[in-house]
Amino acid sequence: MMLSGFFRLGVWQNFLRAWRSGYTGNLEGEGFTLGGVYVIGAGRQGVLLEHREKEFGDKVSLPSVLEAAEKIKPQAS
């Protein structure tokens, strides 16, 4: 996303939301890497949830993470 990411309206909305809620960050590190969240089940269950950031500050839904985590079945020993 590099420099073009800073010109997206959603990025600035996410920045303002984080700033208003008190998050400041340390401004160290790469800064251009988008993240993601995976919930992976035991054994052959595979990926139960996949969320990839499409723009800076794109957050995963906490209820969807909890729902996916509840679907994890213990692996038989």
TrEMBL record:
Q: Where in the cell is it found?
A: Cytoplasm
Looking up Pfam families in the UniProt record yields: AhpC-TSA_2 (PF13911)
An annotated GO cellular component of this protein is:
cytoplasm
Q: Which key words are in the record?
A: Antioxidant, Cytoplasm, Redox-active center
Which InterPro entries does the record cross-reference, listed alphabetically? PXL2A/B/C
Identify a single GO molecular function assigned to this protein.
antioxidant activity
Record's PANTHER family? PEROXIREDOXIN-LIKE 2A, PTHR28630
Protein family according to the UniProt entry? Belongs to the peroxiredoxin-like PRXL2 family. PRXL2A subfamily.
* Name by which UniProt lists this protein: Peroxiredoxin-like 2A
